[in-house]
Design brief:
Layout (H helix, E strand, L loop, with lengths): L1 H12 L4 E13 L5 E7 L4 E3 L2 E3 L1 H4 L1 E9 L3 E10 L5 E7 L11 E11 L1 H6 L3 E9 L4 E2 L14 E13 L2 E3 L2 E13 L6 E15 L1 E8 L4 E3 L3 E2 L9 E6 L2 E11 L19 E7 L3 E5 L1 E6 L4 E6 L5 E6 L3 E3 L2 E3 L5 E5 L5 E12 L8 E10 L28 E4 L4 E11 L12 E12 L3 E3 L7 E10 L4
Parallel strand pairs: 16-21, 25-33, 27-34
Antiparallel strand pairs: 1-2, 1-11, 2-5, 3-4, 5-6, 6-7, 7-8, 8-9, 9-11, 10-11, 12-15, 13-14, 14-19, 15-18, 17-24, 18-24, 19-23, 20-21, 20-24, 22-23, 26-28, 28-31, 29-30, 29-32, 32-34
């Protein structure tokens, strides 16, 4: 599939087609029949929206909304405040109506279907999404209390929330066959305010009439997954993306997402997710059920996973959990290893002791943990014995050969030893205060017949410094 290699290159060069616009906090009140109102204040924060500088905190101030539930979505008309000529919009938030749960952060994510006002005009034609969460702290009032909520009658539930707008630009789609488009869809996380990015590639089998395409991204979409998949596991953070076009297209559509694996260890960077377990799910039906449409195998050479569909609606990259287990294996920190080679000595043996821990505290039987070297800036002789054979970690020196894995009970710790061979000729040091330094990067991982998900991948790797002083040099 030639698109994959092309996408990997294009995604790195594509200009920003998505930027944050504004963040805000809000209060909302809603009746039992789902009529509601919102009063929001924009954060005082500057953004550059495709070349237009904006600060909704000072340029607009805030907004009020009134709306209702139409059976499938919350729809609201929103007016900027205090000046109603700045940025007015219509908001559509697809959702399933349900009674509020106290202190449960609920996604409030949707599309801005229209916008107007002087600030909207200054930014120009873009596609906006609204991405946020809101909480019901358990409070009610006998009647509406917020400004602009006079239309509500009777008992109201009171909510608080935070979120933001993100803006997405369109790209041109030309006529032809196998027409490829790539986009870097960036949006602001509604909870943390940090940016998430999805590098997306799309290939249309046939474009009969050209038009425009836009790729949007959000933190969630109203819908369901079956139990075979998870979008939030092992440190993977879900990014839902949607592709829409005004072009006339026929034939299959291939949609791809790039993932990072800079160290080529087979895991998605910053997670415990095995890259071959990645899948692209497609929202189908109403309400959406996310169905696996992945084209296998996953392209591990280009770090890309693709799906083939016949129509466009939201997508999400997920993990196939049918053949996975969760184990938390930890390698404990190791301080710098200091070695001094005496005058007249050609080499020195130095054992490196490393501890691993099973952080599955309730796992009585334990699980097998393997300790491995995954990175090395040291001379090759450091890891070879007197017979020039590679050495390895050994958890059981009484057994024949190096035992680089061992079963560790829940909450327990085991120690492995790695015999280092420090050869004087491989290190040069000008004096006692200036050691020669190299590093070993180590990882602890569970050994299992299925795919293992690490719930906390931040603690299963360490880098050990080896500091060598060779007195033969001075």
């Amino acid at each position: 599939m030639q698109l994959l290699a092309a996408f990997t290159l294009i995604a790195a060069l594509t200009p920003a087609y998505a930027v944050p616009v504004a963040r805000m906090t809000w209060q909302a009140e809603a009746t039992a029949d789902a009529n509601f109102c919102v009063s929001a204040t924009y954060d005082n924060a500057p953004y550059d929206v495709f070349g237009t500088p904006v600060n909704f905190g000072t340029d607009v101030g805030g907004f009020t909304c009134t709306g209702s539930y139409n059976g499938s979505a919350f729809v609201a008309n929103c007016t900027s405040a205090p000046d109603n000529s700045k940025f007015n919009f219509t908001l559509n938030v697809p959702a399933v109506l349900a009674p509020p749960a106290q202190n449960d952060a609920v996604p409030f994510v949707g599309n801005v279907t229209s916008s107007s006002g002087t600030v909207a005009d200054a930014i120009g034609p873009v596609t906006y999404t609204f991405d946020g969460t809101q909480i019901w702290p358990g409070t009610t009032a006998p009647s509406a209390t917020l400004p602009g909520c006079t239309g509500l009658s009777g008992l109201v539930y009171q909510f608080v929330g935070q979120g933001g707008f993100n803006a997405f630009q369109t790209q041109a789609v030309n006529t032809g066959t196998n027409v490829a488009v790539s986009s870097v869809a960036t949006f602001t996380d509604p909870d943390t305010g940090t940016q998430r990015t999805a590098n997306i590639g799309v290939r249309f089998a046939d474009v009969a009439s050209g038009g425009e395409v836009v790729v949007t991204a959000t933190s969630s979409v109203a819908g369901s997954l079956n139990s075979n998949f998870s979008v939030n596991i092992g440190g993977l953070v879900p990014v839902y993306f949607d592709v829409s076009t005004t072009a006339t297209i026929t034939g299959p559509i291939t949609v791809c997402q790039h993932y990072d694996d800079a160290d080529n260890d087979g895991l998605v960077d910053g997670t415990g997710v095995v890259e071959t377990d990645l899948r692209i799910l497609h929202g189908e039906g109403s309400p959406y059920v996310f169905v696996d449409r992945t084209v296998l195998p996953v392209d591990t050479a280009n770090n890309t996973v693709c799906a083939e569909v016949s129509n466009l609606s939201p997508f999400v990259m997920a993990v196939n959990v049918t053949t996975t287990s969760t184990h938390d294996s930890v390698v404990l920190p190791v301080g710098p290893v200091k070695v001094t080679i005496g005058s007249g000595k050609t080499a020195m043996a130095k054992p490196l002791k490393v501890k691993v821990q099973n952080a599955d505290l309730t796992e009585t039987a334990g699980h097998e943990i393997k300790l491995a070297i995954i990175g090395n800036t040291c001379p090759t002789s450091l890891l070879r014995d007197s017979l020039n054979q590679l050495v390895d970690f050994d958890f059981d020196p009484k057994a024949f050969g190096a035992q680089n894995s061992i079963v560790v009970g829940g909450g327990k710790v085991k120690v492995a030893t790695l015999p280092l061979n420090v050869v004087a000729a491989d290190f040069t040091t000008p004096n006692m205060k200036s050691p020669s330094r190299c590093t070993l990067t180590l990882s602890a991982s569970a050994v299992a017949t299925d795919t293992v998900i690490e719930p906390n991948p931040t603690n299963n790797k360490i880098t050990v410094e080896i500091d060598v002083v060779d007195k033969n040099d001075f």
